[in-house]
Write a structure and sequence with these properties.
The chain is of the alpha/beta class and 166 residues long. It has one domain: 60s Ribosomal Protein L30, Chain: A (2-Layer Sandwich), CATH 3.30.1330. 17% of the residues lie in helices and 36% in strands. The protein contains 2 helices and 11 strands. Helix 1 packs across helix 2. It is globular. It starts with a strand and ends with a strand.
C-alpha cells in the first residue's frame, strides 16, 4: 500500500494500491488481464486505486500481498480511504482492464484470467456495498489509467482503442 504524499502523480504498480486526496492523480499502466479498481468519495475528494493481478488467493504461491487480489484490495482501499476522511457509504467504483490479451491461445470454452478478474472485482465491490458507476473492461486490448482525484475523472488510455473518460 502506498500512502500518497502530496506529489501530483502517484504511480501504482502491478499488485499494488494507493490512496490519495484532492489534486493528486493515481496512475497505473500496462493493464492487460489485470483489473484496476478505482474507488472514489466525491464529497471528501478521496480516492484509491488498486492494480489487481489475480482473481483469488488460490491462484498464487505468495498470498501475503493484499493488493494482488480484488477481495482484499477493496477492503484495504476502503480502510485507507476512511483514514483519509472518506465515508465508505459514499464510495463509488469504476473498473478498468480484464482483457483477454491472448484469447487465440486459450483452449476453446476455457475461462480466461481477464474475465475471472472482472468477476472477482465485481463480487468484491458487491460484498462491500460499493456500487459500480462505470466500466471499461474485457475485449482484447491493454489499457492505462489516470485517475484525477480532484474531480473523480478516470482517463482510460489505449493504443488500440484511443483514450476515453469514464
Amino acid at each position: 500500500m502506498i500512502d500518497a504524499e502530496p506529489t501530483a502523480e502517484i504511480r501504482v504498480k502491478v499488485a499494488d494500491c494507493a490512496v490519495a486526496r484532492d489534486e493528486q492523480t493515481l496512475i497505473t499502466i500496462g493493464l492487460g488481464s489485470c483489473v484496476a479498481i478505482v474507488l472514489y468519495d466525491a464529497r471528501a475528494r478521496v480516492g484509491g486505486l488498486a492494480h489487481t493481478l489475480l482473481p483469488d488467493e488460490s491462484m498464487a504461491r505468495d498470498r501475503s500481498n493484499p493488493a494482488k487480489f480484488p477481495a482484499s484490495a477493496v477492503a484495504l482501499l476502503l480502510a485507507e480511504m476512511t483514514r483519509l476522511g472518506a465515508d465508505a457509504r459514499r464510495v463509488r467504483a469504476k473498473l478498468v482492464g480484464g482483457a483477454s490479451m491472448f484469447s487465440s491461445l486459450l483452449p476453446k470454452g476455457s475461462i480466461n484470467i481477464g474475465d475471472r478478474n472482472i468477476t472477482a472485482a465485481r463480487q468484491a465491490l458487491g460484498r462491500n456495498g460499493v456500487p459500480i458507476d462505470a466500466e471499461d473492461v474485457g475485449s482484447d486490448h491493454g489499457r492505462s489509467v489516470h485517475f484525477h482525484v480532484a474531480d473523480g475523472r478516470v482517463e482510460v488510455r489505449s493504443l488500440k482503442k484511443g483514450n476515453r473518460v469514464i
